[in-house]
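Re-running the complex after MR caught last week's input typo. The corrected sequence lines follow. Everything else is unchanged.
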Amino acid sequence: MNERIMNPEKDLALIKKGALELIGQDELLEKLNAYYRTGKPLTIKLGLDPSAPDIHLGHTVVLRKIRQFQTLGHKALLIIGDFTGRIGDPTGKNKLRKQLTEKEVLENADTYKKQLLKILDPEKTTICFNSEWLDNISLKDMIEFMSKQSLLRMLERDSFKKRMESQEAIFLHELLYPMLQGLDSLETEADVEIGGMDQKFNILMGRDMQAKEGMDKQAALFMPIIEGLDGQMKMSKSLGNYVGIDEAPEVMFEKIMTIPDDLIEKYFLLLTDLTTVEIQDLVDGMENGDLHPKAVKMKLAETIVGQYHPLEDALKAKERFVRVMSQGQVPKELPNLTVDPNASILEVMLKAGFSTSKSEARRLVQQKGVKINGKIVESIDLDEFHKGDILQVGKKKFVELSS
Amino acid sequence: MNERIMNPEKDLALIKKGALELIGQDELLEKLNAYYRTGKPLTIKLGLDPSAPDIHLGHTVVLRKIRQFQTLGHKALLIIGDFTGRIGDPTGKNKLRKQLTEKEVLENADTYKKQLLKILDPEKTTICFNSEWLDNISLKDMIEFMSKQSLLRMLERDSFKKRMESQEAIFLHELLYPMLQGLDSLETEADVEIGGMDQKFNILMGRDMQAKEGMDKQAALFMPIIEGLDGQMKMSKSLGNYVGIDEAPEVMFEKIMTIPDDLIEKYFLLLTDLTTVEIQDLVDGMENGDLHPKAVKMKLAETIVGQYHPLEDALKAKERFVRVMSQGQVPKELPNLTVDPNASILEVMLKAGFSTSKSEARRLVQQKGVKINGKIVESIDLDEFHKGDILQVGKKKFVELSS
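Corrected-run output:
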């Protein structure tokens, strides 16, 4: 039990923040109450694909939600689906999914672990393989479970429905996969399962199977799916439109800088700790021209990279980005200015020609009319600049710094 | 290898006799050829329901066909489906099928064995349980097999099709049952599987699964299904319209006597060793009035009972039937005549008033105009009669004997 004030209702509000849908809210509230009564933390389940050694920002939407549960005292259970991973996709339909050896699965798991613990609290995180229990389920047991599931109900699943309608082949083993995921919930007595809406059928299957075996049903919490760098498709390894959290700072930085402007807000919302108020300010700033989208995007990139790497490395990545990517393609309205890295903000403003005197510069800063990378400069004592920082005065004066 | 002349084509003709359909004829001929080349007998598979301790005449249609294979040198493999029997019918939809304990299955198997060996050659018969291999199939293996089967193809099965169309529930485990039967063929490397047309889908599944695992496909031989005593429904335990081969002679006899006349021919064809010529004679005799259907039916009952009990007991059953069932309801055209059991045929004919002299009686016999129970009396030396025998002279003179 942590030392927080017991307030299940408040916990529930935090849990629902940013979520698209919560199924089983009353049951979850009951479980949260029980937690305060008994001290037994809830098990928050997340299923992981064993073929993905590179966790990307798309995954972090749910991982960050799990971290919130951990701050409330609960424990994360990350289940690597190695059982089906070792089976692969025998239909050969999904060309991007290959059959994994046991060794590959274990290697991937290590990679996973390293990455997951960048986001989650190691003290409250268990990582396991579903082959631990699925390997021991006999055909006889499986038949018993299958006998409780109706085919018609199974075919209500979107992907099956479409294929039935178009007379496209469904292979029998595919009908088992939602049940295998359900068995994971059954076996681990999960209290909450988190996923994207694309997992809705499978997560609800877990609820159904738990109920049929006389167990309390897990709550189902659905988080938004985040678009990849193209701004169109769901972020995914197979589409190549992803940012892996284990990628080098400069790679992450560069990738994030390629997103379309209209994704900036959603990325801030789901991928950073900025409050909704702070995010709204940035959005308003872009809309009324106070902030240049490129500056806001650089703030986004710096913030996200800084979550997975030391802040210093994030800043270096930004410098490199400016040097390699921006040079030669600096837009007319964004001139380049070479400054002494230890110059004061007032000196830089003078050099940029944004003020005619240090006192005018001081006044502009005090009126909160000066920004670095979209963030208001709060003090005239600022004397640290980085290559690629964007200095802005008023709505229209921008300059990119290089040292 | 038996000492028969090698003639696979002739073997094939015998195999097809009385069968409704043979799928894989070319492959079977190839297998028969291989048998003569290598001496390795074919494995003739039959699946048995573990819940049926009482084999009835309906089952003997296929069992008698297997015996024919045995006379050709091949071996019978009878597979008791205890694996699914122990699962039972978890939907509760099939009220007549109950979950069996291991003990019950074993007891039933003993009963089966005793009955089966009344028909089959013990030297060439193996009885086994499919749990022997199905218990060892892992969920992973099963998923691999399932991944090679299309749902659309599975739903072509009649019983599924109808239920899909009427939106009636199909439970997922039901989709596995044809595959489990197919696994039996795979595991035992069956060369031929025999069954009724109701087994067509499942038996063809065995062919399909063998082919997909790179094995020679079993031939599929379909025998007619025989109607039960009501003459309408398939003979089955659950409908109560059956004759068990382990039932007492008098019970079998009585039951067979209740079949409608228009089933007599089919019963002779599928349940006795009479040749098609002999059967045609009986049918013709009934049609032109030479033979009374009751007499022919008694011959049928006597023949069938005699296959499963000593002939003496079959005759006693007939006597009892006549005494208990027929007395008091003897039709006008079938008067009763008490005779000395050791009287000669000529004396009996005289006593019955069917001839006016022994020489006339002798001539009638020699002209093959005298029958006992529908069978022509071949010799005037006949001097053994049984209670209930029906003596017939010409087309219209009948008398039932009692002693």
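None of the earlier attempt is carried over here. Chain A touches chain B at residues 83-84, 86-87, 90-91, 134-135, 137-140, 142-144, 146-152, 154, 164, 167, 169-176, 179 (CB under 8 Å). Chain A is about 45% helix and 10% strand.
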